[in-house]
C-alpha cells in the first residue's frame, strides 16, 4: 500500500491525543496519511458515503457500513461512565419531555441511539433537532429547544450554561446491560485487506502508547484543535474517554460493541479485524 490513506477523526482531545503520533509522523505510515479532522456526524456521513479509508465512527453509523468496513480493535472511545448526557434548563425528568423538542448531535451518533432507547422505555415522543455538538448546550440555554443530548466536553461543562442533568445515557445503558458503552470506533475499508488493517491497528496502538509515555509532546496539537481550551477540561476529557479499551477492546469489549450494534439494527458477524 503505497498511496496515502484518507483518515478522518474528530478534533476532540481524546482523538487528537490518540492520533498525534500518526499525525506528526512520530509513528510512520508507509505512503503517508491524508488526515481530515471533522465533527463526528460529518465523519459518520463520510463513512456512509465511503469517502474515507480509515475513519472514526459512532456505533449507529458503524451499523450502516459493515459491508464495506471492518472495525479496528484500537483507537476507539469506550468504557464505563463515559456516556452522553441529557440536559435541560427547566424540565424535571425524561417523562416531562413528551412532545418536547430535543437537540441531538446527529442522527447517526451513539448519543442519539441511546436517547432513542431511553425514550422508547419511557414511552415519550419528541421532535429531534440535529445540531453540531457544540451548538447543543447554547441552544438549550437560550430556550431554542427544550432539552439536548450533549457529548464530548459537554459532559463536564453543562452546568456552566445553567443546565441540569436529566439523565446520564451511558449509565442508562450500563444499568440495563451491565456492559460498557461504545461511543466511537475506528473503521477501515475491507478492500484494503486484513494485513493493512492489522498494521493500521498496531500503528494506532503505538501512537496512543507514545502519547501516554510523553503527553506533553502532543499538548500543542491537542490544544490547537480543542473546542474547550481549559487545560483541566482537556485533561479530564482525555482521562475519561481514553481508556484501556482504546488500546484493545478485548473479548468483553467486542461483545459489548456487538450488543450495541444489534440495537442499531446491524447483523453482527465479522465486525472486528482478527489479530
Automatic annotation (TrEMBL):
One of its GO terms (biological process) is menaquinone biosynthetic process. It catalyses: cyclic dehypoxanthinylfutalosinate = 1,4-dihydroxy-6-naphthoate + dihydroxyacetone. Pfam families: VitK2_biosynth. Substrate binds at residues 56-58, 110-111. Its EC number is 4.1.99.29. The keyword Signal does not apply. It comes from the Bacteria. Keywords: Lyase, Menaquinone biosynthesis. The active site is at 152 (proton acceptor). Belongs to the MqnA/MqnD family. MqnD subfamily. Catalyzes the conversion of cyclic dehypoxanthine futalosine (cyclic DHFL) into 1,4-dihydroxy-6-naphthoate, a step in the biosynthesis of menaquinone (MK, vitamin K2). This is 1,4-dihydroxy-6-naphtoate synthase. It comes from Pseudodesulfovibrio cashew. The lineage of its organism: Bacteria, Pseudomonadati, Thermodesulfobacteriota, Desulfovibrionia, Desulfovibrionales.
